[in-house]
User: Fold this.
Amino acid sequence: MSATAYGDDLLVPSRCRGPARSGNGGYTAGLLAERLPVADGSAVEVTLKQPPPLDVAMKVQYVDPSDGARQAVLLMGGARIAVATVVDDALDPVGEVSAADAKEATTRFAGHESHPFPSCFACGPERPDGDGLRIFPGPVADDDEATRVASSWVPHHSFADTTHDSPRFDHVPHVGLGIAWAALDCVGGWAGDIGGRRMVLGRMTALVDTPPVVDEPHVVVGVERGREGRKTFTASTLYDADGRIVGRAEHVWISIDPSAFN
Assistant:
C-alpha cells in the first residue's frame, strides 16, 4: 500500500475533551471518519493509538488515495494518533427505549455521584448546556437487557454544522459527524460500567445514517456485549423522536489508571 496524499490539518479543541488533557475519543474519531469518502451503508472503524492532543494541528494522511482513500491516519509529528478504515461490518442496533423511559433513566446516571472524567464533552456533568452534550446514560428501569443504559438528548443549536449541507434535510440545521460520534461514544462506556471499571475508548466503529437535527429530541441507548481481560465491548444506537435510527456504533474500551489521563 502507498500513503502519499495528505489532507488538511485536524485539530481537536479543548472544549471537546474527554479526559482533562486529551480529546474526546468519539469526537476525534468522528472528525477523522468525516475525512473519508464513505458510501451509504458503509461504516468506519477508528482505532485510537494514543490520547488525542488538544489544540494541536495534526496531519491527516490518506492511504491508497487512487482507490478512493479507504484509510486515513492521524499523525502528530511521526506518531500515529488514530487510524480510520472504511469497513463493511454490519452493526446490530441496540433496542429502542422510549423517550419517557430514557429521560427517567438519566436520573440514575452514576456519573452524577462519581465520574472519572467530569469535564468530558459528551457526558461530563460539569459542562453546562451548549458547552457539552450533557448525555447522562442511566440504567433502564425493569429492562430485560440488564446492562442497557439510555439518555434523552436534544442537540444544542450551538453545535449546528455550518460547513456541510445535508441533502437529506434540505438545509435543516444538523450536527456534524464529530458531534454524532461523540453522542454515540460515552453511552457505551457507561453501559460497560466506566464508573467502576475505569476505561478509555480504544476503538469505535460507527455508521451515521442521518445527521442528528439540532433542537430536536433524541434517545441514545447503550449495552455491554462482553469483557476480555482489560477490554470491554459495548454498542450504542441513536434514535430520533420518531424512533428512526440516526446512527449506531460498537466500541472496545481499555481499562486504565484515570490519573494518567487527568
